[in-house]
Amino acid sequence: MGSMEDLDYPQLILQYNSGFLVSKVMFTACELGVFDLLLETGEAMSSDTIAARLGTSSTGMERLLDACVGLKLLAVELTQEGVFYRNTEISNIYLTKSSPKSQYHIIMYYSNSVYLCWHYLADAVREGRNQYERAFGISSNDPFGAMYRSEEEMVKFMAGQNSVWSICGRDVLAAFDLSTFTQIYDLGGGGGALAQECVSLYPNSRVTIYDLPNVVQVAKKQFIPPEECQIAFHSGDFFNDSIPEAELYILSKILHDWDDDKCRQLLAKIYNACKPGGGVLLVESLLNEDKSGPLETQLYSMNMLVQTEGLEAAGFGEIQVKRTGKLYDAVLGRK
């Protein structure tokens, strides 16, 4: 039940009602380059100066900056000369493109793709399927068609996924001691940020990124330098093509894209390819068994029970679950 304060005045409801405004303010400030400009100049700036530098209206920019102050993404300084804005530390670290921990690319992916899909959430609930066709004119049977609709969009999506691993990757890979696994396949490894984290954390390992041919081509060209000798590539479709033998298979944010039957088929295929004593590491956002949270996971609709049962059905044993305290958790099953 809600508190008496909530029943007297629906603060929580009003907060939820305007939640999309919060996202759009951050999306827009990132897209226009507000945080990058303030980091580049290294000093507080007036709204008029920021507007002039970024080619926007003065009125619109001032309102955007004030909203960012309210969200603690910017700080404001009131002086005799006027009102000046500067980045907060969290914005310098996570919202500027040049930061090693930048979330800019995943934010832009949410702004340009996810935000549009969620416009059709009611249709998704009625029909029980994704809304890529309404949002992008692409078949709903091809969940990656929208993300990979052009090389430019593919690069953006892969950069966005890489940005997630810059803040979560080490945690999921360190959830279990994986040092005994030296031959690792990262299925659907995309831009390779998780593979890079893996060889950094476990220097004796060699990771092969198994992904679609066009994804591998972009990863080689844009994200993984040739001198990364511990990272190799395998082009193919792991649902339809063979999976080579390895000691450990990583499935990071893969299973939530597919229905239960397809997930079970993939896990069984991995089990058959896996060396005895090897295993599979699932990286997903896990829901509490009583469905009480966490909220971020409820929004992603991932159920831990489905994942562990799928591993057991495929033949894996000694299944362990580790919460990282961040968005993504780890599940390890052994053969």
UniProtKB/TrEMBL annotation:
Catalytic-site annotation from UniProt: H256 (proton acceptor)
Record has Methyltransferase as a keyword: yes
Pathway: Aromatic compound metabolism; melatonin biosynthesis; melatonin from serotonin: step 1/2
Highest taxon of source: Eukaryota
Pfam family, one: Dimerisation
Any GO molecular function: acetylserotonin O-methyltransferase activity
InterPro entries per UniProt: COMT-like, COMT_C, COMT_dimerisation, SAM-dependent_MTases_sf, WH-like_DNA-bd_sf, WH_DNA-bd_sf
Domain O-methyltransferase dimerisation: 15-96
Gene3D superfamilies: Vaccinia Virus protein VP39, Winged helix-like DNA-binding domain superfamily/Winged helix DNA-binding domain
Keyword annotations of the record: Melatonin biosynthesis, Methyltransferase, S-adenosyl-L-methionine, Transferase
Enzyme Commission number, as recorded: 2.1.1.4
BP-aspect Gene Ontology terms: melatonin biosynthetic process; methylation
Top class in the EC scheme: transferase
Residue ranges constituting the O-methyltransferase C-terminal domain according to the UniProt record: 118-312
Subunit architecture: Homodimer.
Purpose of the protein: Catalyzes the transfer of a methyl group onto N-acetylserotonin, producing melatonin (N-acetyl-5-methoxytryptamine).
Official protein name in the record: Acetylserotonin O-methyltransferase
Organism: Dryobates pubescens
